[in-house]
Amino acid sequence: MNTMSIRRAISSDATQLSQLAKLVAPFFTIAKDGRGAEQFFDSITVSAMEERLLSSQFEYWLICDEHDAMVGTIALRDNSHVYHFFILPEFHGRGYARRLWEHAKAHAIDTGNLGIFTVNSSLFAEKMYAKFGFLASAEQQETHGLRFIPMQLNLPAQATAHEVGQ
Asked: Residue ranges of the N-acetyltransferase domain (predicted)?
């Protein structure tokens, strides 16, 4: 596998994050052209991304390739909800998503998460989240031009016990 690096995203990454979100939007919008998902597109403008990057409610991480080029991002809201998780399509299936997820999950647990995570998974990403241990917590939903499946991961207590030294 190629060399990967992970770093915390900063406000100057907002433009790149906005471009990545727009690029992968057809994977989760109901209409491939984005019709009906205007609210989502408003939420991924450069200024909206900058606002989240500066908010203590969100934690964004970037994964980069061996040339330090951004390949993907994950964002947790409130240290427990996978808010954004995007990987450039040409890097799907190469382990970048797993490595990024494992990093974000470990950081969340180290900073107080008790092993409970939620996500509104696109239909495209459902199998990936299932491999990570997430289970559907409700039926498929459609709202504001997006189609998703609410999912949750409940890690066993022993998986998070390292935090308290057990």
From this structure: 4-156
